[in-house]
Structures are given as C-alpha cells and as structure tokens.
TrEMBL record:
GO cellular component assignments: cytosol
Family: Belongs to the TRAFAC class translation factor GTPase superfamily. Classic translation factor GTPase family. IF-2 subfamily.
Composition skew (Low complexity), residue ranges: 213-222
Molecular-function GO term, any one: translation initiation factor activity
Protein name as it appears in the record: Translation initiation factor IF-2
Ranges annotated as biased composition (Basic and acidic residues): 148-212, 261-278
Compositionally biased region (Polar residues): 81-90
Length: 925
C-alpha cells in the first residue's frame, strides 16, 4: 500500500503526470515514466521538496512528526509584539516581532498521530483550499484511504499556510502604502509651509526694495534739481522697454557724475537696509541695478556704458561701507504749517519748563515775555495767566492742568503706601495741660532735666518743641508747649499729634477755670486724660479735694470707680514722676498705639523758625515710617531735602522713627506748626505740591476749614446733614451761664441735639475760637467779647460769633436755627473801639473819658457798650464826643478823643468803649 505509481499519485493529487514527473525530477527522485513506482520515502522527499519550494524548510522527520488530525476554527486575533506568530499555525517567522495588529487565525484542534499511523507524504492538491475548512477537510480524495486523506490534508495545510502568508504579506503591503500616503501628506504640508515662508521672505524683500526705492526717489529729486541747473541736455534717447514709463519720463538725462553719485548713495541705502537685516543679501544684489535706475528715473538704455561699470563696482563698494552720505541731508520736507502743541499749564511754571513743554528754546520764551514787557530769568516762576498768555502768543494751545493734580497724585501715592508696611507699637505723644501756675512747665522741665540723655553725652538740652524720654518700660514723647491753647491751635489746623493729655492740677489750688477748659479740649479731641495732682510736697496740698472737684467735670478717678488715672506728683521733688510715666505707658498700651517703622516718613511740624546761620529749622514729629537724612520732604508750602537732623540734645541723627521728634534742616522756608510732613519720591514732585499749595488762595483755604455758622447750620439742618448744634458759650457771670446752658440744652429735640462743647465765664479767647474750629461750633458770647487773638482766628476761619445781652434773644436765635426759622437777622457790627486812658470829671460835662480810638471809628450817634476785661458792663449811648474843644460826629482810629457816656459815670482807665451798628441782614440760603 505504501508504494504507488506516478500515474496514480498524479491522479490522486489531480495534476498531470508530466507535471508530477517534472516535480519528482526537481525533487531529485528518479521516476522516468508514469508507471514508475514511488516508495514511501520518495513521496516524503517530494513533499519536503514541495514545501521547501513554498518556503517551508522542514526535514522529513519533522514533517512526519507534524502530521496531526485537526479541526480548525477561524477567528481574529490581535498579535502583540511579544506574541510570536510562530504560535499560530502557518505563520511565517518573518512576521515575528511586528507590532500589534489584527490577523485572522485558524485555530486547529490537534490530535497527534502515532508515527505508525502516518500515511505517505501528502501531495499538494491542485484545488484551491476553501476557507470553510471543515467541509474541505471532509472532502474525499478518492484514494479511499484515511491515511492518504490525512496526507492530502497536510498538503492542503501547506497551501493554506502559503495563502495565509500571502494574506499577511498583502496586509503588510497595505500598511506600507498607508505609511507612504502619510509620508506624502506630511511632505505636502511641509512643502506648503516652505512655500509660505518663501512668500513671506519675498514680501520682506519687496518691502525692503520699495523702501530703498523711496529713498532713491528722494535722492533723485535732490539730484534732479542739481541736474536742472547744470543745463545739460539729453543725448541719450530713451531705449528702455515700453512698460518703463518712469524711465521714459526721465528723458532729460543727468550728468554721469551725478548719476554715479546717486547710484552709490542708493546702494548705501540698500546696504543700510541689509545691515538692519531687512533685505537678504541675494535680494540686494538682484535689486541693486533696477534700484539705481529707478532712483535716477531714467531708462536702462540711457546709461548702458555706465551701467556695467556701476554693476561691476557695486559689490566692491558694498564690502567697504562708505560713509552714509544721506545722513547729513534732509530726506524729508520741512513742514510748512506751524506745529500747534497743547501745552499743559499748572498753577505755576518756570520759564525753562514752559519752554520745554512748547519744545522751544528758553530764550524764545524770555524774548516773548520781554515783548510783553516782562524781564524774566530762565528759572523764574510764572503764574498761570502769564504762562497761558505766552503759550497763546507763541501760537500754541494752553491747557489748564487740573488744579489739584499734584496734591491728588501725592494723596494717591500716600494711600498706596497705606498698609504696605507692618505696624508696630509706637511711643505715646503727650501734651501737658492745666491752669496757670499749676506747674506744667516745672513738670516738663523736671522730666527733661532728669530723663533726656543729654547730660551724659555732653549735649546741651535744646528746646525744639518736643522731646522724648527713655524709661525702663518704654519711650514717652512730650510736646514742649504746655497748655490747651497750643493743643487746640494744633488741632484746629487739623493736626492730630497728641495721644494722651496729662492734666496738671495743683493740689493746693484745686480745679480752676483753665482746668475745666483743658478737660473740655481733651474731651472734644477725644484724647484720654491722666491727671497729675501736683505740688503734693506742699503742706496745704489736698489731693482728695482735687479728685472731688474733678468729679464735677465728669472726671472720676480709677480708685473711685472711674476710668481716669490720677497720679500724685511733685515737680519740685520729683516724687511720683516715675509713676506718672508708668501711667502714661499703661494708657498707651490700652490705646494700642501703632505705626509702621519701615517706609517713607509722615509727620507733623511741631514748630519752625528761621535760624541766622542754618536757615529754616523745623521740628518734625515723625508719626509713621522713618525719616532719613537725604529724604525729600514736603511740608505745607515748603519743601526740600533733609540736609541734617538733630535730636533734643543737639546731636546729629541719621534717622528718626515713629513718635520721635527731630529738628530738620534743608527746607525751603519755615512751614507752620501743625503742617503735615510727607516724604516724596523726587524733588520736582515736592516742588510742584509745595507751589500748588502756596498758590492756593487764602479764600479757598478758608472755605475748606471754616467753622460752622448759624446760617450754614440752618442749611445743613435742612439738608439733613447736621444732627447736632455745637455751641461754645461764654458769659459774664455764672448765673447767666447756668441759665443759658439749661435753656439751650432744653432745645434739643429728637432730631437735633444741642451740644455745649464748652461753657465758661469770661471773654472769648483764642483757644475758644480754636475749639470752635475743631468742634464745628458756634461761639456765643453773653455780655462778653472776644479778645484780639480770638478775633483774628474767628476772622481767619470765618467762624460765627454772636454777642447777646438778652438771654431770650440768644435762646430764640438758636431755637430758630434749629427750627429752620432763622429769618433775616439783625446783626450787630462793631464799628469802632476806644480805650479809656484817663477819666476827667468836670462840672460842665460830667464824667469824661479820655480815650484813644484803637480800632475803626467812633460815631457820636451810634449805640455803645462799656467793656471791662472784655465783659460788657454798660450799654447805652454817647452823651458827647469831642476832639480838643470841638464837638465832632466821629473820630477815627489813631486819634484821641473825649467821650461822655450818658447816664454812666463809672468809667475807669483800661475800660473799652465799643461803638456798634445794628443792621438787618436778609439771609441768603
Ligand atoms: N512746691 C512746689 N512748687 C511747684 C511745683 N511745681 C511747680 N511749682 C511752682 O509753681 C510755680 C508755677 O510753676 P510753672 O511750672 O511755671 O507753672 P505753669 O503751669 O507752667 O505756669 P504757666 O506757664 O504760667 O501756665 C513755680 O513757681 C514753680 O516753682 C511743685 O511740685 N511743688
């Protein structure tokens, strides 16, 4: 059974005998004809050959070992690189290692056969194996032998393997094509990008070329004008191409020299462009010749002979850059219309600054002002009107700078700094107040003498307006000017310097009028009090009585359940001074006084003076930040760089932190006490702010700071702004004062409160006026007058001061103000004041007062009042007014006169006689 003839085998595998014979021959098997028999071995040899010819390299043994019975199922499998394709039947080793992809896999369920069971080698079938292997495998070959069938299947399997390999190869081919398509697409994108870049480059070249062309045209204009004057006629008719109309236009030829020169210049231009990197080298070379021609506006044919030379020389010249000849020539036309500038004019401006803002020389401004009849220097400061005049005369437009620009900018700068630096506890600043002779100065002196560190350091204690002392528990700064006048004056000007008020009350004297005033001032300012009961060394000292009296002013000692610390001291012996300092520091702790140490300084002027040798000297109390030597400061209307700083011992200091007073040199003038001090970034800024402030009119300053008047009060009440009427009441006697206070307080309604900020007996003083400013109060005088200093403040601040002599009138006015019924009021104007120097008595004229008119004018027929110590003692009319022996109707200021007061004989030297006028004034709302 194992041997078959060639013919049989050919019919079994379904191929022609000749083909099988040739295959056998190729396989090295000697089979001469169709009837030759083939051994089992030869059949295997043929199979091996056939497999090998299909790519399988197997030995006969291997082939035999591989004979299996299989049932196959086809599925798809994702091959990962780790999975060798060898594991799938029929895969080629060449596919191993390929990256993951999906392949169709035939899974064959194998049953190994014994070697004995194996049939002769399979013969490849001519029929194409079907994909549905099941049916194909069951197909009969017609040999009738199961073994043969198996062999055939093995052959079929070989073919299928070949088919699978082909399929995989095709798949591989498809992938390759996809890769190639991807690559092609990438290349096309790249090519497009390159094209775009190329276009961009071309555009840049074109731009450079155009620029060069423009430069050339400008040059040509210039040269053209020269050429015209040279009167050379054209000898070269245009021979350029018909589209070169520009070239034909330039029919009139230019001298060759000029052309050469011009061409050179254009090249220089192009070279310059090239240096700037705007024109690529290649573009330059390409463009050089056309540019030359265009530059000269002539046809290329005009200068055939010349052109070559130029072209030849051009590169050489480019290598050796010539001095750009265009540099010293104007390439543009001077504008024919004058340039009109908008010039910003601040409040004041220097000649130099004004000139610079108009872009003219300072000498031109000086000349213009000279024409206007003003001789000025370059640094002279011009006011706004003059500056505007000059600007307009010179043909520009003046724009008024925002008036408060510099101030607003400064404010903004300061606000920006706010909160930027961390705040740390700072020493308290103390003001000492009290009644006359209760020991304020003694107390301050004692503390300074014993505490200011000048003695050890050999310094001399300076009075700079403030000083600070070191104690084991901390530093305390004292303001050197005692009394509430200075305190309230500072506050009236808006300075908030004092943190704590030490109220000195002499233990032997008790609470006195100024003690009460001091309490009122401290209270109005919202500054806490510490009471120093002084002179306890004295026998007659009675501290308890002081404490008792203070309760009447709502100042209650801590030991009595109140909140005011009271310390018994002696400025003479020094007893209790340490306790006082301790109390101050304790109070400071309660107040949690804090200020940043870093950052630009802010402070207040405590006092200032003009020193002969050192110029303006100002004591600055630093309130925040650190003031350093060299800082630029603005204070009020003055500014300057801090040239030097000194402490209260006269020693130089380099820096001063919060709550530390220092004497500063370097300001442009002497600022006012209570002016604020700020450090600014540059001197120009400082000057601007200072000048702006200086230029502000006095009136506007008054407007900002004025106190309240009854009329305003009415308006404010109407507008619902003001909810309380603050009054400072001064009266001649305690009885009237009490009566008035009571009546006024009763006027309070639910909506409007009457608050008596201060009330006292005696004339109206400067500190009363200052208190009126700070507390926005009306000053009401009942049978009392304001003294000269108070009148000055009242006038400066535009305070409302009213005098009354009838209680109900005063009450009525305030009532009307509250009710909004203040109708046209009768105001009294004091028109003259005379001082009584001597008193004569004559039988003929009665009592005659020899007077000097110190203010205004005394009129014979006007009503008068007699004042003694600023308190009204009589009101009436004049009996007589004489100058020497003559009766006169009026006497002016500076003249002497004799005054007889009707029905009043108690006139004394020192009294004052005031003459007033009653006028009715309609209220303007
Ligand atoms: N025995 C005694 N006398 C004192 C004490 N303190 C001040 N004096 C005296 O009281 C008088 C007035 O003291 P000043 O320090 O001038 O009082 P003041 O409050 O500053 O006075 P004015 O500056 O006028 O407001 C002086 O003669 C001091 O010597 C003290 O503690 N004991």
């Amino acid at each position: 059974m194992s041997e078959v003839t060639v013919k049989q085998l050919a019919s079994t595998v379904g191929i022609p005998v000749e083909r099988l014979l040739s295959q056998l021959k190729e396989a090295g098997i000697s089979a001469s004809d169709a009837d030759s028999t083939l051994t089992e071995k030869e059949k295997l040899q043929l199979l091996v050959y056939l497999r090998r010819s299909h790519g399988k390299d197997q030995t006969e043994g291997e082939l035999g070992a591989q004979i299996t019975v299989k049932r196959k199922s086809v599925s798809e499998l994702r091959i990962s690189p780790a999975t060798s394709p060898r594991s799938t039947a029929g895969s080629r080793p060449a596919l191993a290692g390929r990256s993951g992809k999906t392949v169709s896999v035939e899974v064959r369920h194998k049953r190994p056969l014994n070697r004995d069971e194996t049939a002769p080698p399979p013969v490849p079938s001519a029929r194409r194996p079907t994909s549905e292997g099941g049916s194909g495998e069951r197909e009969h070959t017609g040999s009738g032998s199961a073994i043969d069938d198996m062999r055939r299947r093995a052959a079929l399997e070989a073919l299928r393997a070949e088919q699978e390999a082909r399929r995989l190869a095709e798949q591989e081919e498809q992938e390759r094509r996809a890769r190639e398509a991807e690559e092609a697409r990438r290349q096309s994108v790249e090519a497009r990008r390159r094209t775009e870049e190329e276009e961009e480059r071309h555009r840049a070249e074109e731009k450079a070329r155009l620029e060069a062309e423009q430069a050339a045209q400008a040059l040509q204009q210039e040269e053209g004008s020269k050429a015209e004057t040279s009167e050379l006629s054209s000898t070269h008719p245009p021979s350029g191409p018909p589209d070169q109309s520009a070239a034909r236009r330039a029919d009139t030829s230019k001298p060759k020299k000029v052309v050469k020169k011009a061409a050179e210049r254009v090249e220089v231009e192009v070279d310059k462009e090239k240096e700037k990197g705007r024109v690529p080298k290649k573009a330059v070379r390409k463009e050089a010749a056309p540019i030359r021609l265009r530059a000269l506006d002539v046809g290329p044919g005009d200068y055939e002979d010349l052109d070559g030379a130029l072209n030849e020389r051009a590169p050489r010249r480019r290598k050796k850059p010539t001095k750009p000849q265009l540099q010293d020539k104007h390439a543009f036309q001077k504008p024919t219309a004058p340039v009109v500038r908008e010039v910003e004019i601040p409040e004041t401006i220097t000649v130099a600054e004004l000139a610079s803002r108009m872009s003219v020389k300072a000498s031109e401004v000086i000349k213009e002002l000279f024409k206007q009849g003003m001789m000025v220097t370059i640094n002279q400061v011009l006011d706004r009107d003059t500056a505007v005049l000059v600007v307009e005369e010179m043909g520009h437009k003046a724009v008024l700078a925002e008036e408060r620009d510099a101030e607003v900018a400064l404010q903004e700068e300061l606000e920006e700094q706010e909160g930027q630096f961390e705040a740390y506890p700072r020493p308290p600043v103390v003001t000492i107040m009290g009644h006359v002779d209760h020991g304020k100065t003694s107390l301050l002196d004692y503390i300074r003498r014993t505490r200011v560190a000048s003695a050890e350091a050999g310094g001399i204690t300076q009075h700079i307006g403030a000083y600070h002392v070191e104690t084991p528990r901390g530093t305390v700064t004292f303001l050197d000017t005692p009394g509430h006048a200075a305190f309230s004056a500072m506050r009236a000007r808006g300075a908030k310097v004092t943190d704590i008020v030490v109220l000195v009350v002499a233990a032997d004297d008790g609470v006195m009028p100024q003690t009460a005033e001091a309490i009122q001032h401290a209270r109005a300012a919202g500054v806490p009090l510490i009471v120093a009961i002084n002179k306890i060394d004295k026998h007659e000292a009675n501290p308890d009585r002081v404490m008792q009296e203070l309760t009447q002013h709502e100042v209650l000692a801590e030991e009595w359940g109140g909140d005011t610390m009271m310390v018994k001291v002696s400025a003479k012996t020094g007893a209790g001074i340490d306790d006082l300092l301790e109390a101050i520091l304790l109070q400071a702790e309660v107040l949690e006084l804090k200020a940043p140490i870093e950052g630009p300084a802010r402070g207040t002027i405590i006092e200032s003076s003009l020193d002969k040798g050192r110029g303006p000297v100002a004591t600055v109390l630093v309130q925040a930040g650190t003031l350093k030597r060299g800082d630029i400061i603005v204070s009020g209307t003055e500014y300057g760089r801090v040239r030097a700083m000194f402490d209260e011992s006269g020693r130089t200091v380099e820096a001063a932190g919060p709550s530390i007073p220092v004497q500063v040199l370097g300001l442009s003038g002497t600022p006012n006490a209570s002016d604020d001090v700020v450090v600014v970034s540059d001197e120009r800024r400082a000057r601007e702010v200072a000048e702006l402030r200086a230029a502000r009119s006095r009136q506007s300053r008054l407007d900002e700071q004025r106190g309240v008047s009854l009329d305003q009060l009415f308006t404010q009440l109407k507008e619902g702004e003001q909810k309380s009427v603050n009054i400072i009441l001064k009266a001649d006697v305690q009885g009237s004062l009490e009566a008035l206070k009571e009546s006024l307080l009763k006027l309070s309604t639910d909506e409007v409160k009457v608050a008596i900020v201060a009330a006292g007996i005696g004339g109206i003083t400067e500190s009363d006026a200052n208190l009126a400013v700070t507390s926005n109060a009306i000053l009401l005088g009942f049978n009392v007058r304001a003294d000269a200093a108070a009148r000055r403040v009242i006038e400066e601040r535009g305070l409302d001061l009213r005098y009354y002599s009838v209680i109900y009138e005063l009450i009525d006015d305030v009532k009307k103000a509250i009710a909004g019924l203040l109708r046209p009021v009768v105001t009294e104007e004091i028109i003259g004041l005379a001082e009584v120097r001597e008193v004569f008595r004559s039988s003929k004229f009665g009592t005659v007062a020899g007077c000097m008119v110190v203010e205004g004018v005394i009129k014979r027929n006007n009503p008068i009042r007699v004042l003694r110590n600023n308190v009204v003692i009589y009101e009436g009319t004049l009996e007589s007014l004489r100058r020497f022996k003559d009766d006169v109707s009026e006497v002016k200021q500076g003249f002497e006169c004799g005054i007889g007061v009707r029905n009043y004989t108690d006139v004394r030297p020192g009294d004052q006689i005031e003459v007033f006028e009653r006028t009715e004034r309609a209220r303007v709302l």
